[in-house]
Amino acid sequence: MRYKVLGETGLKVSVIGFGAIKLPEISLEEAIKLLNRALDLGINFIDTARGYGDSETKIGIALKDRRDEFHIATKTHIRDADGAFKDIERSLKELQTDYIDLYQLHTVSTKEEYRKVMSPGGALEALKRARQKGLIGHIGITIHRDLDVMRMAIESGEFETIMLAYNPLDPEGVEREGILKLAKEYGLGVIIMKPLSGGQLVLPETEMGRQIGNDPLVRGCLRYILSNQYVDTVIPGIKRVEELEEDVLVADMPIPMSEEEKQELFAMIGKLGKSFRYGQICLRCGYCLPCPQGIEIPEVFRAYDSYMNYPEEVKEVGLKIYASLKVKPDACTECRQCVQRCPAGIDIPAKLKEVTKVLEEALRARSLA
Ligand code: SF4
Ligand code: SF4
């Protein structure tokens, strides 16, 4: 197992952490075995949440006698100070500990939510109070999708860690848009969630027999994430000993991955031939580039995916990306050079036409509104 210091917290954490979101899906006996095995294999960072059913309770029961062997992180969805402080007290009780290493504000993913937690009487106050009292060690935040909120949180100086969704598909653009790098520059610890896109980046069981514990796609994704210099730890959700043992193996694989290995990984993902979370089909791998016409194909598809599949507030992001393209997709001459290079087998010229139609119409409608 390799370890990294989590930002400026001073916590030395295993690069493979234990995502405890799935503990409610297994029995207490299974959870006890699994969590103890995790510590035995060198994992020393466990991430849970008040909102993960009985996850905290199971961790408390399973590991109360080994509390000095791991760092515990948990989080609250409550947005006001009094409620959040009660959540911290409840976490301490359920986890059977008198100290939580990292407490996070959970899924603060819109500007409105962000303003709420940061305002006087907001949840951040509770976390600061708890830190002052020595109940928690460090304060973190977890954010989805809104890159502006991520930037604000990082630059606020209030948070010591940030948890972001990242995997080879980079569905939220945290690598492409420099969020991971920014977090590192500001000294935050970077924790990665959704490394397998919520269980989507796994090979189907039928294709190569039983995949659990022996899935090259799972290993590839985790290794890809750990190859990113800005990442401190990744927390796959784990519910089986086989998964755990496979994930831990990745920690000792060499990094960074070579370009050929990355290509193989994207080819594997492309072969899955399905659309991913938020309807994403393009893998953003960039292997279709360069286009002789200068079309930034992955950016065009990112604009389209954001517009089509994200909630209303993120649709604007899609239109903004589209409006800022230097070369619009209607410049495509249908030479099809890109098609041969695309591991996802996308009929790129046809898709570009579809994108142009939808986004041009949307832009026109906005300007008329
Ligand atoms: S088919 Fe269109 S998008 Fe693809 S390389 Fe040719 S011009 Fe570029
Ligand atoms: S269009 Fe294909 S090659 Fe280009 S970025 Fe998307 S998945 Fe990769």
General description of the model:
- With 369 residues, this protein is an alpha/beta fold.
- It has two domains: 3-260, Alpha-Beta Barrel (TIM Barrel); 274-368, no CATH class.
- Helix content is 43%, strand content 11%.
- It has an eight-stranded parallel sheet.
- Helix 8 packs across helix 10.
- The chain is globular, with a radius of gyration of 21 Å.
- The relative contact order is 0.10.
- The structure holds iron/sulfur cluster (2 copies).
- The site of one iron/sulfur cluster has 15 residues, from helix 11.
Note the topology:
Layout: E1 3-5, E2 12-14, E3 18-19, H1 28-40, E4 45-47, H2 55-63, E5 71-76, H3 81-94, E6 100-105, H4 111-118, H5 123-132, E7 136-142, H6 147-156, E8 161-165, H7 179-185, E9 189-193, H8 216-226, E10 233-234, H9 241-250, H10 259-272, H11 297-309, H12 312-323, H13 337-341, H14 348-368
Parallel strand pairs: 3-4, 4-5, 5-6, 6-7, 7-8, 8-9, 9-10
Antiparallel strand pairs: 1-2
The structure holds iron/sulfur cluster (2 copies).
Compute the separation of the termini in Å.
Answer: 56 Å
**Topology order in helix (H) and strand (E) letters:** EEEHEHEHEHHEHEHEHEHHHHHH
What is the averaged pLDDT score?
Answer: 92
Number of domains as seen in the coordinates: 2
Strand content: 5-15%
Q: CATH class of the largest domain, anyone?
A: Alpha Beta
Number of strands: 10
Largest sheet: 8 strands, parallel
> CATH architecture of the largest domain, please?
Alpha-Beta Barrel
Bound molecules: iron/sulfur cluster
Estimate percent helicity: 40-55%
Order of strands side by side in the largest beta sheet?
Answer: 3-4-5-6-7-8-9-10
Give the CA-based shape. Answer: globular
Radius of gyration from the alpha-carbon trace, in angstroms: 21 Å
CATH superfamily of the largest domain: NADP-dependent oxidoreductase domain
